[in-house]
Structure formats: C-alpha cells, structure tokens
Amino acid sequence: MDIISRAEWGARPPESRDVTTWTKRTAFMGHYSAASATQTPRQIQDFHMRKRGWADIGYNFLISSTSGVIFEGRGWLTIGAHCAGHNTPAIGVCVIGADKPDVQDVSDAARRSFKWLYEEANRRKGGKLTLLGHRDRGATACPGDEIYSWLKAGLPIVGQPTPAPKPPAGSKPAPGTSLAFPLPAGWYFGPASGPDYSVSGLYERYFRGRTDRAWLKEWAIQLGRRGWNVGKGRRWLSQHGNDGIYGPEYRALALAFQRDQRLRQDTLIGVNTWTAAFNNPVT
Ligand SMILES: [Zn+2]
Fold this sequence. Notes:
alpha/beta, Lysozyme-like, 2 domains, 6-stranded mixed sheet, two-stranded parallel ribbon, elongated, binds zinc ion, PGRP_domain_met/bac
C-alpha cells in the first residue's frame, strides 16, 4: 500500500522533532479527528501547530475514513503528540472523520488501510504492538465507538474489495493505462480561486512527482482516448488547448463528462471524475 508522504501533501516542516526506537515502541493507538471527513492533513497540521502550539501534526499517520488513503504524519519513529504520557510507546494513527451513530463512517478501504498499517508496524518492530484506542489511556471518547469496538475485536475485515462493475453489452473497456488519482483524499482539480485543496495548475504544485498541470493534461488526454474531441480548435478546450490550467474550458469538459457518466455534476475533477475516465467502459 502507498503512504502519501509529507512532501506530497504539502506539510510544513516540524518546529522540532524527537525520535524513539522500535524497542521502545510497544503500542499502536487509534484516534479519530471527530470532524469532517473532508479535512485535509494540512488543515489538521495547521490546527495543531497554530492553535495547539505543537511542533508538528500530532499523529504519526492519518487515514481518510472514506477513501482509505494513508498520509504520513510524524512517521514511524518520531514521537507524536496524540496521547499525553504515551507518545513514546504508542504510534498514533488518526482516522479522519467523525462517528455518527448508526452509520458505518469508516469505509472498508479505510479499515483495510488501518489494518495494513498495523501489520506493517509489527513487521518493522519484529514483534506485536498492543492495539489500543485513545480512550484506553486517556479520558476521552476518542476514537469513537465504531472504531473502538472494531479495534477491540481485532480489526476484522468483513467487506471484500468491490469488484469492478461489468461493462454493459456493446461497450468497450477503458482505453490506455489506468492512472491513480494523483491528489490527496478530498482534493480536486478546480478553480484557482478555491481553497488550498482546489488544484488549478496555476501554481505548478507537485503531486506524486509531477506537476498538477501535467496530471490535469493526462486526464484530458485520456478523454481524448475515449473519443472526446479535445484540443486547441477542437470541440473541447478549443481556445487554450490542453494546457493543464483549470479554467472555464476544463470546467465545461468536466461537467459534460460527469453528465455522460452519470457522476455528481459539480464540475470539479475529484477522485470519481478522474477514475471514471481511466476505468469506466466507453459507452
Ligand atoms: Zn485521540
């Protein structure tokens, strides 16, 4: 499994850091953010550093409760700030999201990621870390009842990975090579006037080793492979061509594609609109 590195999610450098050893690591502690599942690691880091006055984001790792994407926090051996008095023995992992009663807030993908991270920690230690919820060591409701009971049950995985839907008769499989969505969970390609996680290509930020512009171009090239008439002087992106800078022309193309694929028509190129271009059959 992939861990989105600090560089990839645009972390601020830590004010300071203290490191421990695998010998001193004895526990793996689950947390939740108790806030919106769309919060980005950078927003959590800003909150921890500016409002709490901590040296860095408090957790060692974070996991999106919806997509299951894993983000590097302080990492394996840097001492965190997630449970007073237990930061040296415990690796703190935060599931980004809240616990609403009677709903499964933590997706199967997020559960698989959490379990994978736990097993990876055991592998690196060469021994078994004690699985804990924050409430086992502090007066808190964290990590919420859903995660806590799952932790205590030993992280059972019940859901199987969702099989790819069968293409309808007469359709062709998606052309080209599938590219994974390059932005962090909850981010999207969208206008420059949007928040930090609206990636326009205007500022040439780097994600997974390439610029946002290069990635946005890949998406439009893929639409071309799917038969969309894309490029300068063509039906779509006619004025500026496929320049990788999100503006009204990409907006119109995204909306048309979302209509065609019966996706949410929000004009933004997030994980669903990205993935549909690479994985959905051409109908
Ligand atoms: Zn906690």
